[in-house]
Design a protein that fits this description.
Asn_synthase, asparagine synthase (glutamine-hydrolyzing), asparagine biosynthesis, 17 strands, ASN_synthetase/amidase
Length: 625
């Protein structure tokens, strides 16, 4: 199997490691410490946190033998944190602390020699761990641990990242041998011996039982608080104002708080049918005190732009590289206008809406309501009757569904209704994926089956959580990219407290064929002008993607001419080059090429300047981590 020792994150990227309170800790810290690294000590005096972070990103406090650290965006101050540290005697208290705080952050605790660390339930902030110098060391980045241990690339896991989509529970499996991931909503607990480590659940999704009418005020308050976490520092903050309900809601909440100067930014699409600009202008007319900036549509980068020059330090492949140029292009301009932080509406589609798969359960608990709604969805989405009935009749548990996907990895994509009403989209492999890669991916899926428990008992709630986790994989890498570009991104809709209150609403109130995003339009009454809440359309960038594919076909051909995936035996470069000669081919109308490009670009980012990564095909006798 290919082995590669990654370098430490470059370009000033932030990261931190958490070291157990152990006699071997100082030696481990010395091995992990870079010349510019910062260090925080356990109450015992031994090294606890080592890494790179800004002053705004860390709040730390201690009381006796207990230490607490918050890394990220959270309003809790050092004095309050010290009070919590004095009260902290068992992990249950840590659960209550995490559940009470708004924002998005990692939480680390040192309690009488025991070390605890957790990220977010959303998956936007992850925790990884590996053995370094004999101790279990945690980190917010998998590549840092891989660099510290000299870990080799896990080609089997890379093969699964060529699937479209990657199924649960494989989406958080690290790409490095010997590096493990803590599932979102779980924490890592390392005992005082420094070697005994366990994962423990600290978060579970709420039961979706609240009527929307009773939850609307709480949803508005949670979103307002999430925005306040970002604006309370004053100065200037910028926000997307696409004209959609999600970004528009955040703009009005930020402007109403009057804690920071607000710059609302609109970048129209190139499609003449795109009505985002119209709706953005309507919203901006009501945004008192905010500056509205409209970028020229013709200056918007296209999908597939600059793929050959991506060199961001990323710790996993991401389809986010496809839109990297579009996401980052306006950030320097906003920073020049004084913005210290850019808020996006990303996540609104995931928490203010929900999967139609919820009607699979509702058909059995509220059949009359479900039948009426399902008829509406069928008319709205043009679902064929036969596949719809089969999807509703399918009562396989998640493990059975995933096992049933194995023989069909090469099959054509399933009908949209199968995806919408099932456990999710069945994973597929494109024709250019080699038989060796297919065998590796199928083998890893089969190995995962014994532990393949759904994220929630019913397929609707599972699909919602999986969508959140999957999107956070992309956004997490965009966050690394944007920080390097000089203006960090932030996403209030993906704060755990916002996710919780939205998921607590009954699914029949969250998704209906008769109303668009009823959760948000109800919660934002009195905050967003009524005329802005009437929007029911949503722009989509298919024209920009098609234009980008035609314009940047030469770059794609160059990718496959010297393909790192081909060197590993995972793709057929001839098929890929031929495909790029026909950018209007029907098989490229979807996003099926994205995962392959994401993996190819990521492998290239791992290469040190002037020293290509030593690649070799995986051998049958070797396994992954």
């Amino acid at each position: 199997m290919a082995r590669h020792t990654p370098s430490w994150p470059r370009h000033g990227a932030s990261w931190f490691v958490v070291i157990p309170d152990h006699d071997a800790g100082p030696a481990v810290a010395a091995a992990l410490r870079t010349p510019a690294a910062r260090t925080v000590a356990h109450p015992s005096g031994r090294p606890w946190l080592v890494g790179h972070w800004s002053d705004e990103e860390l709040t730390v406090a201690a009381a006796g033998t207990t230490g607490l650290a918050v890394l990220g965006r959270c309003p809790i101050g050092a004095e309050r944190l010290a009070v919590e540290a004095a009260r902290l005697r068992e992990p249950a208290r840590l659960d209550r602390l995490a559940a009470a705080q708004p924002g998005s952050f990692h939480l680390a605790a040192s309690i009488d020699g025991r070390t605890l660390v957790q990220g977010t339930a959303s998956g936007l902030r992850l925790v990884f761990h590996a053995r370094v110098g004999g101790l279990v060391v945690a980190c917010d980045r998998a590549d840092v641990l891989a660099a510290a241990t000299g870990a080799g690339l896990d080609v089997r896991t890379l093969a699964t990242r060529l699937l479209w989509p990657v199924p649960h529970p494989l989406i958080h499996r690290p790409l490095w041998q010997g590096v493990s991931a803590v599932p979102p909503g779980h924490r890592l607990a390392v005992e005082p011996d420094g070697t005994t480590a366990r994962h423990r659940r600290w978060w579970a999704p709420p039961e979706p039982v609240r009527p929307l009418a009773g939850a609307a005020d709480d949803i508005r308050q949670a979103l307002d608080t999430a925005v306040g976490v970002r604006t309370e520092g004053g100065g200037t903050v910028s926000l997307d104002l696409s004209g959609g309900l999600d970004s528009t809601s955040l703009c009005f909440l930020a402007a109403a708080r009057q804690e920071a100067r607000v710059v609302a930014a609109t970048w129209p699409g190139r499609d003449p049918a795109d009505d985002d600009l119209l709706w953005a202008r309507r919203a901006a007319a009501h945004l008192e005190g905010a500056e509205h900036v409209i970028w020229p549509a013709e200056e918007s980068p296209l999908v597939y732009e600059d793929l050959l020059t991506v060199d961001d330090p990323l710790d996993e492949p991401t389809i986010g590289v496809m839109d990297r140029a579009r996401v980052l292009a306006h950030l320097p301009r906003l920073a020049a206008r004084g913005s210290r932080l850019h808020l996006t509406g990303i996540g609104g589609d995931h928490v203010a809406w929900c999967s139609e798969a919820s009607y699979h359960r509702l058909l059995r608990t509220r059949p009359l309501l479900a039948i009426e709604r399902l008829r509406g969805f069928r008319a709205l989405f043009h679902w064929p009757y036969g596949p719809m009935v089969r999807a509703l009749a399918d009562r396989r548990p998640y493990r059975g569904w995933l096992a049933g996907c194995l023989p069909d990895l090469r099959a054509p994509a399933a009908p949209a209704v199968t995806d919408a009403l099932g456990w999710g989209s069945p994973p597929r492999l494109a024709p250019w994926i080699t038989p060796d890669a297919a065998r590796l991916a199928a083998g890893l899926i089969a190995e995962s089956l014994p532990g393949a428990e759904p994220l929630a008992p019913d397929r609707g709630r599972h699909a919602d959580l999986h969508a959140i986790h999957d999107s956070c994989r992309i956004i997490r890498q965009w966050d690394h990219m944007s920080a390097r570009a000089g203006l960090p991104l932030s996403h209030p809709f993906l704060d755990d407290r916002v996710i919780e209150v939205c998921l607590s609403v009954r699914p029949e109130d969250r998704v209906t064929p008769w109303r668009y995003k009823p959760l948000l339009t109800t919660a934002m009454r009195g905050v967003v002008p009524q005329e802005c809440l009437r929007r029911t359309s949503k722009a989509e960038a298919s024209l920009d993607a098609a234009d980008g594919l035609r314009r940047h076909a030469a770059d794609l051909r160059e990718l496959w001419s010297d393909s790192r995936l081909a060197a590993l035996g995972l793709v057929d470069p001839a098929l890929l080059k031929d495909l790029c000669e026909h950018p209007d081919a029907p098989e490229l109308r979807g996003a099926v090429l994205y995962s392959t490009i994401g993996c190819e670009v990521w492998l290239r980012t791992l290469e040190s300047p002037g020293r290509p990564m030593p690649l070799e095909p995986p051998r049958e006798t070797e396994g992954g981590s």
